[in-house]
Design goal:
single chain, alpha/beta, 10 strands
Length: about 300
């Protein structure tokens, strides 16, 4: 099954009526849609009212909700050491699980939190250097080492909190026959890293909690010299239940496949045939490129 994320639906013509998005997704060659965590309540409700809505998955915490201070529920940390924040994040994810069940979806994609609540300053500088054309050198190596050291020093209690969160969420999701996909993340301080994913998922059957491979996230961390992009699937490929497919230019991801320079060979080799393919393409990509993404990846063996 090839699914199109509602990330692409962040266009005025679709926000007014998500039924139009479903019709266009199907017309472009997709079998289903994934509800992105950027989808607000009203468009989500409208999407669910589509006759026999073909919803493959929900990316938690959907729908998008903001508190009185304007903070989005997607900013809540499922690995937070603050008990109130972690509880709010868990409750938002459980709501996504309930909605997924009601919509007939099989999967809920989960961001399992982070070590702290902000990108490391070392990674921020590393990204600035990359964008300016500096990809190697003494300063780059210092920044990479700083990222690794900071995470090793700080990760312990946040990982423990993430494991507790996962235990609660899997119990809740399993009762509703929803599989959780634990996604690799865009920033180095975020959870999990490849070995952490293997550890976190070891006690669960893949139909309860599996690995979700985001191509763009893995690519960006590799380009920064922080994590080998192949390590994710080498370590967790057997447990992979789904993937977010999008291309990358520089450090900018969520391009339609074919509009970047990702090497898709390791993706074709590493993602199991039965894993759900979700095209997570941003709203700036033209419809013709969204349509062309399917044959593009079919030619490269990523989809059947």
């Amino acid at each position: 099954m090839n699914s199109l994320s509602t990330m692409w639906a962040q266009q005025e013509r679709f926000v007014r009526d998500m039924h139009a998005f479903v019709r266009e997704a199907l017309a472009l060659g997709y079998d289903a849609v994934e509800v992105s965590h950027s989808t607000p309540e009203a468009p989500f409700a409208r999407l669910l009212s589509y006759p026999q809505a073909p919803i493959s998955s929900v990316h938690a915490p959907a729908p998008l909700v903001r508190d009185g201070d304007g903070r989005a529920n997607s900013a809540l940390n499922l690995a937070a050491l603050d008990v109130r924040e972690r509880r709010a994040a868990i409750d938002a994810t459980k709501h996504s699980i309930d909605l997924a069940r009601g919509a007939g979806a099989r999967f809920v994609v989960v961001h399992l939190g982070a070590v702290g609540n902000a990108m490391f300053d070392a990674e921020r500088e590393l990204r600035r250097l990359y964008d300016s054309g500096t990809r190697e050198g003494e300063r780059v190596e210092e920044l990479r080492a700083a990222c690794i050291r900071l995470r090793q020093e700080q990760a312990g209690p946040w990982l423990e909190a993430a494991a507790k969160t996962l235990a609660e969420l899997t119990a809740y999701a399993a009762e509703r026959r929803i599989a959780l996909g634990i996604e690799n993340r865009l920033h180095y301080h975020e959870i999990p890293q490849p070995e952490e994913a293997a550890w976190l998922l070891a006690d669960y059957a893949p139909e309860v909690a599996g690995y979700w491979h985001d191509v763009g996230h893995a690519e960006v961390q590799w380009r920064l010299g922080l994590v080998d992009r192949r390590l994710w699937l080498d370590t967790n490929g057997a447990r992979c239940i789904g993937a977010h497919l999008h291309d990358v230019t520089g450090l900018a991801d969520h391009r339609a496949p074919g509009n970047g320079d990702v090497d898709w060979r390791y993706i074709a080799e590493g993602i199991p045939p039965d894993a759900l393919r979700v095209f997570e393409i941003n709203q700036s990509q033209p419809a013709e490129d969204v349509a062309r993404a399917i044959p593009y990846l079919r030619e490269r063996g990523v989809i059947a």
